[in-house]
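Dear support,

I submitted the protein below through the web form. The confirmation email said the job was done, but the results page showed an empty box. After a refresh the structure appeared. I'm attaching both so you can tell me whether what I see now is the final result or a partial one.
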Amino acid sequence: MGGAVSAGEDNEELVDNLKEADYIKTKKVEEVFRAIDRGDYYLEEHRDNAYKDLAWKHGNIHLSAPCIYSEVMESLKLKPSLSFLNLGCGTGYLSTMVGLILGPFGINHGIEIHQDVVEYAKQKLMWFMKNSDVFDDYEFCEPRFVIGNCLLLPSGCKTYDRVYCGAACPPEHENYMKNLLKIGGILVMPFEDQLQQITRTGQSSWETKNILPVSFAPLILPQKTDAPQVELPDCSCRPLQDLCRISIRRILRANVKAEKLKEGMSSTRPKRKRKRRNRYHRRNHVRDHEPDGPPNHVKKEDSEESEKEMEEEVEKPRRNPLQEKIEQLPLPPALKQYLMYYRTK
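What the results page shows now:
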């Protein structure tokens, strides 16, 4: 279950409700929650439940409740160019939102124990990069996923600026998790029925803050049949042609923004018209896994207002000014496609 009950119709309403309940507090977190549609990470036959504040599980595929992801994103205090490690990265939904904030010079790694879930995450990532309307609005740090048990990282492995663990950490592995942080780094993880924010203040000192009471399924402990160690992705420098692509796209994006400002247009995406208003209420405890039996159904507030049907706006196809700028460059078609990441939209 989640921290609130929602009857959101789409991703926009979900984010509006999370803001209203003060789960989403900052502008940059709001923007990436709007940019990445939670429903895109559901199986099509389960998409109707995507915008409720509930955890979802199907086989090995799992998504935490939206209120939990909101608290995690706020607590990580993300900035461009940081390094991020997602332990139990699942569908890649959280890692993709993080990548929109880290930008092209960050590091975005994820470890997932189930091979089928890693394949699912890679498919969702590929779809986002090739088809999403908002991909060209951001400089993106592409997540890189590896298969393995996150408790089997080698001693002395790379440390990170930000770490999130998506399952309850056993007490005997608390120090293991803390030592994945750089000094000054932040770890967010469920520990002893609390979602905690842990900041490393020195070589052997940490500060801990409880964010929210939660119930998470525990991490899967290593088995004798597991590989002896998990190898993290390398952190090699980007090739020169990739750096050139980033620079050209940055210049063109700045030109598009300047032209919009000159014309008196907003440089941000317009929000879709809300069809109804639903309210969120914080709860004192959040469950991240499926409870036994069906969830309790709570009567919606403002039912009279929600029953009124409002006309839906007819959405016009969205222009992509960045791609238009690239098409106008005096370059061979193959190079233009490279600059557009081979996108067709």
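Response: this is the final, complete result; the empty box was a page-load delay. The chain has ten helices and ten strands.
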